[in-house]
Amino acid sequence: MSSKSSASSRWLGAQYIVSSCLLLASSANAHEYWIEPFKTQATVNGRLLANIKNGEDFAGVSLPRVPSRLASVELATPEETISIPGRLGDFPAIHLDVQTMGWQMLNVHTKPKTITYNKPGKFENFINTHGLGEFTERHPDLIQDDAIVVERYSRFSKALIFAKAADTETQSAPLVSNDVDQTTNWTISGQRFEWIVDKFPHEAAPLVLQLRYQEQPMPSRQVEIYRKSGTDVEKELTTTDELGYLAVAVSENTSYLINAVRAGRTDPEKPLIETDWASITISGPSTTEK
Fold it and tell me: Which residues touch 205 (CB under 8 Å, ≥6 apart)?
C-alpha cells in the first residue's frame, strides 16, 4: 500500500470512528463482534484485508483500528504467532502481507468495556437470549425490577483463512488441507474464552471446534450459528456436546459466524457481571471469486 493510500485510509478511518461510535451508542443490543476478511481465500505474497465488525445477526458496521480498545491483534500459523501492527484510524482495521501457505487464524482480543442495564427486564432478556438462564437462577437479585446491572465484557474473536500459492488458478480452491486430520494446537491463542479448531473442513467433512474457558472444555453451552449466502442470513441455535465440541458443515459461497457467551460474577455484593464473547468466522470457497 502506498504512503498516499495508507494516509487516505487512516483519514477515512478517523472520520469513521465518530460515526461508528454514534451508531454503536444508539444500539446497546448490537453485541456480536467478528472478523470479516475481504476474500474467502488469501494468496501467498499477497495482501490480506479484513474488517473488525460489530452488529446483530451477522450484519453490522465495520470498525476502524482503535489501538486503545484492542488488547491484541494476531495471526497464528502452524509455525508461529505474530502481532499484526496497525495505527489509529486504519480502515480496514486489519491488513498484512501473507507469507505462509495453508490454514491460518486471525485473532482479535479486545480490552474490557462496560454497559449498564437500568431498565426492568433488559438484562434478563440479554441473559435469556444467550442461553444463560441458570446464571440468573443463581443470582436472582440481578433481575429485580429496581436492579441496575453493569456488564463488563471482553471479546475474543477469530477468523479462519486459507492461503493458496500465488501460481494457483484464480478460481478459489476447495477447503482442503494436508493437516485436516491432525489436532491443531497452533490455533490455541491463549484467549480466556475461545473456539479451538479440532479439525478443518475437508471435502464433505465438517469444521470441528471445541469451546474452552481458561483452557477447559465448555459442555452444553448455547451456540448461535449464522449462515450468510448473498444477503440472506439464517440463524441456528444449538449447543456444544458433553465435551464442548461442535461440528459445522461448511458449504460453498456461504459465510459462517459462530458465537458463544459466558457470564460470571466475582462479588455477590455488587451488581457487576463479567461476560466473555467467543466468535469465529469462516467462509466456504467461492465459485465466482477471482
Answer: 180, 199
User: Could you give the number of structural domains in the chain?
Assistant: 1
Helix intervals (H) in the chain: 3-25, 122-129, 133-138
Phi then psi for residue 22, to 5 deg, are -65, -40
- The Cα–Cα gap between 20 and 49 comes to 19
Asked if 252 and 217 count as a contact pair (C-beta separation under 8 A), the reply is: no
Residue 289 lies in a domain: no
- Domain membership flag for residue 171: yes
Please work out, in degrees rounded to the nearest 5, the angle formed at the alpha carbon of residue 230 by the alpha carbons of 226 and 231.
70
**pLDDT (tens digit per residue) in 44-64:** 999 999 999 999 999 999 999
Q: 96-122: per-residue pLDDT in tens?
A: 999 988 889 999 999 999 999 999 899
Cell, residue 129: 437470549
**Res. 178 pLDDT band, cuts 50 70 90:** very low
CA distance 203 to 183: 18
| Domain membership flag for residue 74 | yes
What residues have CB less than 8 Å from 198, skipping those under 6 apart? Answer: 183, 184, 208, 209, 210, 245
Please give the residue range of the domain that contains residue 140.
3-283
Beta 94-97 vs 102-110: how paired, if at all?
Answer: unpaired
Rounded CA gap, 199 and 194, in Å?
Answer: 15
288 within a domain of the structure (yes/no): no
What are the grid coordinates assigned to 254, written together? Answer: 456461504
- Chain-centroid distance, C-alpha 104: 14
In sequence order, what E strands does the chain have? 32-37, 41-43, 47-56, 59-63, 70-76, 81-83, 94-97, 102-110, 113-117, 149-164, 193-199, 207-213, 216-217, 222-229, 232-239, 245-248, 255-264, 272-283
Paired residues of 153 in beta bridges: 113, 275
